[in-house]
Structure formats: structure tokens, C-alpha cells
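Need C-alpha cells for this chain, all 64 residues.
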Amino acid sequence: MSEKGNSLQSLALKCTALVAVVVSAGGKPAAAEGPAGTAFTYQGDLQEGDTPHDGTANFEFSLW
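Here are the C-alpha cells for all 64 residues:
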């Protein structure tokens, strides 16, 4: 087979593999799931002085 034929077979194999991955992943990208919510779970140790904080708290986050 010619070099061009091998190249086309390689491209076809890669495309087939990509389609298989997309189909097995549900067929839609993660962005199609909708926007992320604003809630989160803090799994750490929040102290108020020497005692654990037991109540609500306001946090301010920023991305840099």
C-alpha cells in the first residue's frame, strides 16, 4: 500500500477511536451539563480562637 493509503488508514483509525470515546462518554461534552452551582462543602478544620467554629461563616473568594 502507498504512503498516502497508510496515512488515510491511520486517520480513519484515529477518527474511529475518537468517536468511540465520545459515545462511551455519553455523547455530549461536560459543558452541556449546565452551569455549576455556587454551593460547596468545606471539609477542613475551621477554628475560632482555640475552639472549633460552630455556626455559619461568610467567605470571600477571588481568582487570580
